[in-house]
Amino acid sequence: MLTMRNDEKYAEDDDEDTLSIVSSSEFSPSSSLSPLRSYLRSVLLPIVQRESHYVANIQKRFRSPWWDKYFVYTSALGTHTFFIILLPALFFFGFNVEGITNHEMGFGLLMIMGGGVYSSSFIKDLVCSPRPLAPPVTRLTLGNHHLEYGFPSTHSANSVSIALFFWGYIHTFLDPSQTTIYWLSTVLLALYAFSIVGGRIYTAMHSFVDCIFGVLLGGFVWWSVTDQFGGLGLGRRLHDWVVCAASGLPYPGPNSALNSYTLIDTILSLRVFSYTLSPPLILSFVFLLIINQHPQPIDDCPCFEDAVATGAVVYGALLGSWVTTYFHLDNLVQKVGGPRPQLGSGWQILNHSSHLTSSPNTTTGETWTFLSPQPFIYTTPLFILVSVAKLVLGVGIIFIWRLLAKSVLSFLLPPIFRLVAKGVGFVRRTLGLRWLGMPNRRFYLPATEYAGPVPGLGLGFGVQGRDGGEEEEGDEGMGGQRSRPMSVPSMIDLPSTLRVSVEKQGGIGSAPYAYTSPYAALNGGSGSGLRRVNGDGDDGKDEGAGNVNDENRKEDGENGRKFRHYDADVLTKVIVYAGMAILSTEVSPLVFELLGWGVHVMPPLDAVVVQ
């Protein structure tokens, strides 16, 4: 039973481990929020409480085992893990449909995903609105999304923006009055969006207001990123600017392929943006700035990690385009006889004359003649084998990079951070600049407060205390950490396990953990520690893959701080995910050409096709 009394949640249970009063930052006024953030939160909290009962009534009326499985598993189609697999495929297989290339479509989808995830994560941490209360709802979740705030729904934003993105191309390619494929595709995309958005209500992961705002946000992101139906075309404009600057060419003016000449074009045409090194410098500055200015949440929410990771993917893709153009890496493909059709695709080059151009994204001037493929040529064993090999190799490169880079950076970055911190401290003391210091976020332990590499690598290394001695399992480390602390997983990370959990209590906006932030003084609360609240037959053990294990979080008796993140984690995530984007968009296609497998399954944009 859950009732509201003033600003505290009460959970009644006869079990001795149950707290009679559950202090929860979700429903406590917080002095750490600005007046605007506090006002927005105060507006949303009553809505969440009221709509929690509406969602519970919907579940009581419509829940069934079949619908449980349907909405839980279709929710995976709105996660970033799904698109980590889908996005590289758009760069691994070259095609050209009505002048739309795979690179353009892949880059647009990448920008939409990045814009949707970052903007929704930013708003989540800005407002700090909880998910529907459990109880009365029962959450059905795949992964650890319940650890985040609820407003707005990232799944809803992603599904709507992506459905609109593909529908825009379908509307361009197909005539609605002459084909059933158009309407069939439209219905399928609408079903996709409805399954994701409606599923967030059915699974009690979001309230109605979360999903409504998520839908509106997704539509805005789609309109801002693409040039479909008069959109701003921000994605293509940024890509054109990066490539033109790297090539030493002026930014295209009003006669560009986009709909109109906007203020964005005026800005990108300024001289400061036209230098060859402008893109990497400006992109790095802007990206680090938005990371630094990301709102500080009340609770330890993984939204920040999601924002960093998706932002790093967009940053890496733009940086990869600059590197490829500036260093003329596309010339390597031409030197080995590429670009060539994929093995088994049925296309053959009869005439191949090429010369180099100043930009890899303009027509090459090559005269190619292709033989038209035979019917069903894309189902031949050779084509299928090469396609599978490309996916396995391409995704494998991403996984290997992620594992190696994360491990190496976790060892290298902490000493670098400590060295920089000493330099910053020296400058601050020498010049009397009291405001100068190393950036640090709440819930993130600075490298100066622990010794050795980042703990928790799972490689058998313990945390070293200040005396240099390695702590054994179960001992308290610096900042209250055990030798192998369990971090809150970010939902954009590729999870080692992805399992379904039925949650009657748990996550943000729920009652299984009576947790007061280590920064409780900022929130006006008292530090009551972390205890488990059982109920509804729960045995006290959390079977969800993403739930926090309080046995892996020991409190330091002196300062009461609990950390599951480290400052080096942020830069590690930036480098890892930016590298993943570069490998997917630039390196892997180059590897396929060098191996002789080919990238294009259809003729490129400037090819001459004969039947």
From TrEMBL:
Residue ranges constituting the Phosphatidic acid phosphatase type 2/haloperoxidase domain according to the UniProt record: 107-226
Annotated transmembrane regions: 70-93, 105-123, 156-174, 180-201, 208-225, 272-291, 303-323, 376-401
Topology term for the membrane: Multi-pass membrane protein
Domain of life, per lineage: Eukaryota
Pfam entry (one): PAP2
Region listing for Disordered, in residue ranges: 465-488, 526-560
UniProt GO cellular component terms: endoplasmic reticulum membrane
Primary localization class, coarse: endoplasmic reticulum
Biased composition (Basic and acidic residues): 550-560
Keyword terms, alphabetized: Endoplasmic reticulum, Hydrolase, Membrane, Transmembrane, Transmembrane helix
SUPFAM superfamilies tied to this protein: Acid phosphatase/Vanadium-dependent haloperoxidase (SSF48317)
Entry's localization field: Endoplasmic reticulum membrane
One Gene Ontology MF term: sphingosine-1-phosphate phosphatase activity
Family affiliation: Belongs to the type 2 lipid phosphate phosphatase family.
Protein name as catalogued: Phosphatidic acid phosphatase type 2/haloperoxidase domain-containing protein
Protein species of origin: Collybiopsis confluens
